[in-house]
TrEMBL record:
Biased composition (Low complexity): 582-597, 632-643
Record bears the keyword Transmembrane: yes
Organism of provenance: Auraticoccus monumenti
Signal peptide: none
GO molecular function: ATP binding; lipid-linked peptidoglycan transporter activity; protein kinase activity
GO cellular component, one term: plasma membrane
PANTHER family, sorted: LIPID II FLIPPASE MURJ (PTHR47019)
Compositional bias segments (type: Basic and acidic residues): 552-569
Keyword Repressor: no
Protein name, entry field: Putative peptidoglycan lipid II flippase
The Protein kinase domain, residue ranges: 682-932
Gene Ontology biological process terms in this record: lipid translocation; peptidoglycan biosynthetic process; regulation of cell shape
Amino acid sequence: MSEDARSRSLISSGAVMAAGTMASRVLGFVRAIMIAVVLGNGTRQGDMFTLANTIPNSLYILFAGGALNTVLVPQIVRATKNDEDHGEAYTNRIMTAFLAIIAAVTVVLLLAAPLVLRIYTDTGWRGEELDAQYESMLTLTYLCLPQVFFYGAFFLAGQVLNARGRFGPMMWAPIANNVVSIAVFALYLVVFGSSGDRGAAFTGTQELVLGLGATLGIVVQAAILLPFLRRAGFVYRPRFDLRGTGLGHTFSLAKWTLGFVAVTQLALVAVNRLASSATTGGSGAGLLVYNNAYLVWILPHSVITISLATAMVTSASRMAADGDVAGVARETTRTLRLTTTVLLPAAVAFLALALPISRLIFGFGEGAEDYPLVAWALMAFAIGLVPFTVHYVCLRAFYALEDTRTPFLLQALIAGLNAGLAVLLVRLVDDPRLVAAALGLAYSLAYTVGVVVAYQRLRRSLPTLTVRPLVRHLVRVGVAIAPAGAAAWLITWGLARQTDSRLVSAGALVLAGVVALAMYVAMARLLHLREMDDIVSTVLRRGRGTDQAGTTEREGDEVGREQRDDTPDRLGPATPETVDATPVPTGSTGPTPVPTGADVPTEAMSAVDVEGLPVRPAPGTTAGPGSDADEPTTTLPPAGPATDGWAEQGAGPVAEDEDPEDGPPETSGPRQRAGDVLGRRYRLEEVLAGRADAHTWRAFDQVLSRSVLVQVLPPEDPRSPALLEAARASAVATDSRFLRVLDAVYSDDPAVGSYIVTEFSPGQTLEVLLNQGPLSALEAAWLVREAADALAGMHAMKLHHGHLGPDALTITPAGNLKITGFLLEAAIVPTEDEAEAVSGAPREEDPEVQDVRDLGRLLYAALVSRWPGAARYGLEAAPRDGDRLLTPRQVRHGVSPALDRITDQILSPVPRQHDTPLTTAAEVAGALNAVLGTADASHDLERRVRQPVPVVGAQATTAVPAVSASSPVSAPVTEPMGTGGAQPMEPTGVRVVETGRPAPRRWLWVLLLLLVLALVFGLVGVYLRNQAQFTGNAPDPAPSVAPAPVEVREVIVFDPEGDPPGDENNDTAPQAVDGDPGTAWETVYYLGNPQLGGLKRGVGLVLDLGDVQQVGSVDVLLPDGTTSAEILVPTQRDVATAPTSSDEDWDVVAEQEDVGGQTAFQLEEPVSTRYVLVYLTSLPADGDRFRGRVLEVQVTG
């Protein structure tokens, strides 16, 4: 497969996970919009809730970005590959250890909640004037802290699913959390409304709704993974036998990762403290603004980078385990190029469109006035989007190499830079409205420096990783996106100048996005950005509903199955779910290093010859140890007729004159014995199949510590050169539906023949399944469609299978397809006469035609369990009417008419009803895809493989059978899961495992009890704190502070409708606050009526308090008579200067009519504000005219 094809495969793998992430992010935005509507963006209440929720979220980052996410996946994958129980015991031990740690952490945090909150908040919150707000925030913290346990449980379960190749559930589960959160804020909005003082403390009921609602969302998010764990075949059983199990190595790795997170948390503490300082005065760009900007900024990274990197870390871990350092470098480079193709344009979009984006998302309700604060922070973050993404991918490469020390050191550098720059920039701007923007810029600059160091350090571990290609790629992407970014900004700027309509703003944003995207795609094509072609082709292919990789999407855990099938991977003796886990493309152009201690050279293999064309093995080709090629990526033990093939465990019947316990007959015994080591690397364990001239062994790779299959030819076998060349050529088949050759060694030793090392993959061949009976229509169509789709790509390269029978198709325990013997059987093909005798029909001269006819035969056999031709593969010959083959519907009742027609179109020279013959694999795949649509049979096949149908009369045996004289076989068969008791009859080669009674789960109940106690403790703490406020049993409270006068720093006249505006006896305005009732500020005279002669709505004085203060009442000394007055505060509380252009910029907080003398204006609720407006709306009579006076004003806090 070409580089382009592998890139598209990686994109396709990430696309399904990206869909889950995108859905979660969309709902996350809805949740953020609800918070902005209800609490605002830059308000004190918004930061109180956000700060209380920061502590469990910080620990979420600790476990997600730390030990669980980066250490567990590689370790569980290795245990899955190497342990006899597929890593189940190891995983249970890890889960037990980490769950116990998480439970303990949760309890400690609940006990230390006041201390933790003090660490995360600025000292301004602990002033006397904010006592009520701080108490409210502490109550919310108690209610949110139990989330820590459920975050940990969620990530543990998610990483177990990831290690088993099921990536979808973990990406989709946060949707449930967001749905719960949206419902909670909707309830809050309905019950409490969106008005009120957003600088005041929450009431007790509001605290319960917000705190318990936030925790409930995380509980639901964790619980939703439990059904997927069961479907993956994993049942958690606590295990505390931790000594001597290798967990010490895991925790040794985790210590650096936890150190990595520790320094991250130190930087986060600094950021939180600085951000929380912005809203101590009432409003500003605090933590909620910072988080909202981060939420928008991280979206493209979450959808693109995390999805691709999640696939990369698993596949790169397998490559690293196989010693393929060059492959890790290739995978890292490919991921970087794909991600930056999208992320650099996203950064430009944020810089150009930050204001309209922020207004569209956060500009509703309480957030209508302060959304620009989010926009400024978003632009600061945008500078660091590409450095952050590149750094993220580099860290995943380190983790795949099991290097957790380097990420710790890198993160220590970045955290230190982030904290230092944050303090410096916040002090430089010295403006509450710009705190979040300063923090975002510090974040970006820190990662810009950090990524340079990280990339250079990674090059030491991956020598083939170079800088220039990535820099050239970024420059080309930058050139492509620059005109698009400029056009997008001009569109939104131009329309914003014409109107302030929110609808027009949204339309301008959409128009700008469409124009920019079209321009970028056009420029990318012009500059030949291959990654853009890959992305566009993948999107178009999915839009048509056709997946060229041959896998169909399903929801839930089936999403993970597509992830496994779309790309090639390295396989080992893994659990059924990890057999097809995230694949890893390979194919470097240099020679493969010889393992240490290998005395027989290991031949490297290449999918192309020196001219770059696919290699087709020729019968007369010779090969030796000196051949120069690259490592293969695709394989399987070749299958062939009896005279040339190798046998498979459980693949055929045992001859009556052979003892199944003895293996091959004595006359055909292998020259090697169990315990022999080939090439000082592969220790032979047991014979799985064999005959006089070849044997298949299960062996142990002592270099990589994994089980493999070794197929040994007789010494000086004439087929050796052709077979080794075929193995080398098979490297071109990187589609994960083809199994891969791992090693091919030529030997001229008279005692040891040449041998081929292949993957050890569990599963059942289609031959075994068809001997149990026909498949369902869905299963038959899906299997053949998958095979046809995989072969279509090979046919385009003029490469063909040549011998595609039921023995060459293996169904894994996860229900996926594996094609065996690609190109290998052609190297050991019998003579034409032998082939005709076996199949009943001569082989086609055109190998592509032969493959297509084999697909038709497979479909026929799958539908009716008969072989179209002579009896073969343990199946009876299909019936005929004269010389014409009966169709499947004529043989078996209930066969799908559509599949019957497709079978006829493939096998019949003249199809019925004048249908068009299907002559290519692509046509077969297309016809079956039209029938299947989005249906997926992998789950049905999974059940069929795990619970095989007993064959009446079959011998119950677990021994390796001899090779049938007429039936070639392929790969070893895994042992299906048993149900606790042996069945009376078992199909050949299927062993039912007695699972026994599950161990009591006492420790699980202990853990649950600890969690319940933690929850009870938290709720009791909340109750006691609330009771202390209303009972006399509370500790001695601080003495209440009596209302005190607030100093007025300056007074200006408010007269927006004057002529000129703002000019009404300005020189006497200070006399209203000089403390002398004998002096006063007076208005001019008005004629006609007391409502200022109908010329104005009012006139008054603006009192400047110097900074934001709590205002509870305003006392005004008025002259005797009938004056009507109002007390107003600015609508936007955090304004730096008082609005003087219109009274519509002010909110009325108190008013009285027809009063005189000493008048007290009592506010319903205290208000935090810097400016207070005393507004006269009706004046007392002064003779035949009307004139207002304000003798003295006093503001009380």
